[in-house]
Write a structure and sequence with these properties.
Blueprint lengths: L1 H9 L10 E12 L2 E9 L9 E2 L2 E3 L6 H13 L6 E11 L3 E10 L13 E8 H6 L3 E7 L23 E9 L4 E3 H24 L1
Parallel strand pairs: 1-6
Antiparallel strand pairs: 1-2, 1-4, 2-3, 2-7, 5-6, 8-9, 9-10
């Protein structure tokens, strides 16, 4: 038995427990009049979370890598070709109890915002200068998540029964105040982390001057 266990674990790749869904997005950068912008999508009314702001992206399909999913979804949603995306790298990702969202950064090349003709999942696209996020922190507002139990929850299998002290989880949600569009939640989290990475680059540049 122990040899079989050793064999199983020898090449085993650990995965987060409880993760059921895998998503991947692309944070697209585009140059406008000599200034770099982040491009966002406003989700159409025909899909989930209508009217919300998001990055191109979606579900990672069976046998597909996170990187491939981000590129495929961006091509589909923005109606562009693979050669129009120059992949730069990956930033930190979101690991929630039910899903993982990984975020890649890429440059949109040989394109203009006006030339984009997104598919039916996208109501419109818009851009925000990268410098805006470097210079402006989001607002963070807490949300308290409450534990609720089904009527048949087996309290008899817990040492303290229904007197068990459940941990209450507080989640801090970022919001950017934009004049015409919404930017909050996961997309704002990833945007903020990207801006923090850029601030680290600026600090390093100043040290090397």
């Amino acid at each position: 038995m122990i040899n079989k266990i050793k064999g199983k674990l020898a090449g085993y790749t650990p995965q987060p427990l409880g993760i059921q869904k895998h998503f991947s997005v692309l944070l697209p950068l585009i140059e406008l009049d000599g200034e770099w912008h982040v491009l966002y999508e406003k989700r159409s009314r025909s899909i989930s979370q209508p009217g919300e702001t998001s990055f191109p992206g979606g579900t990672v399909e069976a046998g597909e890598s996170y990187e491939a999913a981000a590129l495929r979804e961006t091509q589909e949603e923005l109606n562009i070709k693979r050669e129009n995306i120059s992949l730069i790298g990956e930033i930190d990702y979101i690991a929630a109890p039910s899903h993982i969202i990984r975020c890649f950064v890429g440059e949109l090349v040989n394109l203009t915002v006006e030339s984009l003709q997104p598919n039916e999942e996208v109501e419109k696209v818009f851009t925000i200068p990268v410098t805006y996020f470097v210079e402006n922190e989001p607002e963070f507002h807490p949300v308290n998540l409450r534990v609720e139990h089904a009527d048949d929850f087996p309290f008899e299998l817990i040492s303290n029964g229904n007197a068990h002290k459940w941990s209450m989880r507080e989640q801090s949600i970022p919001f950017y105040r934009l004049s015409e569009n919404f930017l909050w939640g996961y997309t704002a989290h990833l945007t903020h982390r990207f801006s923090e990475i850029l601030q680290d680059i600026s600090i390093e540049d100043r040290k090397n001057d």
